[in-house]
Amino acid sequence: MKIKTRFAPSPTGYLHVGGARTALYSWLFSRHAGGEFVLRIEDTDLERSTQDAIDAIMDGMSWLNLGWDEGPYFQTKRFDRYNAVIDEMLEKGTAYRCYCSKERLEALREQQMENGEKPRYDGHCRDSQCSHTEGEPHVVRFRNPLEGSVIFDDNIRGPIEFSNQELDDLIIRRTDGAPTYNFCVVIDDWDMEITHVIRGEDHINNTPRQINILKALGAPVPEYAHVSMILGDDGKKLSKRHGAVGVMQYRDDGYLPQALLNYLVRLGWSHGDQEIFTIDEMKELFTLDAISKSASAFNTEKLQWLNHHYINHMPAEEVAVYLAWHIEQQGIETRNGPELKDIVKLLGERCKTLKEMAQSCHYFYQDFSEFDADAAKKHLRPVAREPLEAVRAKLAAITAWTPENVHNAIQGTADELGVGMGKVGMPLRVAVTGAGQSPGMDVTVHAIGQTRSLQRIDQALAYIAEREAQA
Ligand code: GLU
C-alpha cells in the first residue's frame, strides 16, 4: 500500500508553529515510507478564509522546504464533487433531507438544556414521511448509526471509542446548498486516497463522525494520529505572547528553516536523547509511535540554541543564501566587500540569529564617519596615536594581504613598542569597525581590506588629533 498523507490547513490565519509541526510530521511520515504528501487548503469557511492566509501558508511551506507531491487542492473548487456524493447518499438513504425550522431546533435545544441533556438533533425528519417537497428550504443530514460505537486505534493515543448515541445526525449540506466542513474532509481523504491522517488533537471529536460517513460510503478508513497541543513555557495555551507567530516571522527574526524544523520535530517527538537531526536523519528515523501523547512546551531559548548550532555547522555557503535576504532587508550593498560565506564564518560564533549577523556586519561593507562614543572615548585616546601610526605603517607595507600577514603586522607593532597586543588591537578595532566588539583583529582587518583599513585608521588618527587639540 502506498502511504499517502496530507496537510490540510484552513486559511484563516498564518501558518503558525503548531500547524507547521503538523505539516512536518505528515511530510516526514510520507517521506519515511517513500510515500506521497498532499497539500489541501480547506477554504470552505468563506467568511474567515483569505487569500493573504493562503499566501502565508504557501510561503511558510516553501520557506520550510516542505514540498508536496499533489495539490494544492482547494475545497471551494470541489463543491460539485461533494454535492454529487450527497445526492447519491440521498438516493441510497444514507442521508436525508431535514426541513426542521430554526424555531423548532431552538425550542428543542432549550428543552434539552432544561432537562440537563446534551443538545442534539432528535431525528425528527429521519424517518418521517413528511409532506415537504424537495424545493422547500432544507438541510441534508447524515444518517448516523443509532446503535453501537465507533472505535479507532489512534497511532499516537491508542484505542479511542465513541458511542454512536453521542453523535447526532450531522448536517452535511446547508440550506444554501454548501457542503459542510466534516463532509468535505471525508470526501477529500477518500478521493485523495489518504492512508494516514495526522492532525491536531482538536480534531479527535470529528473523527468518529468522519469514520461513520466513510463507512456509509463504503470508503476505506484511514489510520489516524492526533498530535498534542503546543503550550507556552508557562503551561498556558500557546499565544503571540509566547512568540507563537507565523513561521515567516521566524525568518524575519533571523532563524534558519533547518533550525526551526529541527526544533519542531523534537517538540513532541524523540529518538533517544538525540537533539540534532539533519533532514535526512529525520526522514530515516521518524515514526508515529515515538510521538509524545502529552503536550509540549515551546522554548525560545532552545530554538535559539539550535539556530546558533545550525549557523555554525551548516556549510557557510548555504547559510549565506539565507543571510543574503537579511542583508538586503538592511539595505547593505555587499559588492565591494567580503563574500557572505566569509561573514558567516567570521560572525557565526557571536550571533544567535541571521538578523543579528546582518545588523553587526555593516563595517565590512560601509564606511562610517562616527565611532561608537564609549569605545572611542576609551580606546581612541592620545596614547593610542603611536601604536595606530605604527600598525598603519606595517599594514601599508604588506604586499600579500593575508590574515597571517595582518596578524604579524599587529604582533610586530606590539613587540616593537614593548606593549601588550591589546594596546594595539583595541584602538585598531575601534578605528576599523567603529565599535568595541568584533571577531579577531587579524581576520577582521583582513576582511575589511587594505585600502579601507588604512583610510579608517587615518580617520581615527584625525579623531585623536582633534581630541589632542581640544585637551
Ligand atoms: N483544516 C483543519 C485545520 O486547519 C485540519 C483538518 C484535518 O487535518 O483533518 O485545523
UniProtKB/TrEMBL annotation:
Keywords: Aminoacyl-tRNA synthetase, ATP-binding, Cytoplasm, Ligase, Metal-binding, Nucleotide-binding, Protein biosynthesis, Zinc. Pfam families: Anticodon_2, tRNA-synt_1c. It comes from the Bacteria. Its cofactor is Zn(2+). Residues 327-461 form the Aminoacyl-tRNA synthetase class I anticodon-binding domain. Catalyzes the attachment of glutamate to tRNA(Glu) in a two-step reaction: glutamate is first activated by ATP to form Glu-AMP and then transferred to the acceptor end of tRNA(Glu). This is Glutamate--tRNA ligase. It comes from Serratia aquatilis. The gene is gltX.
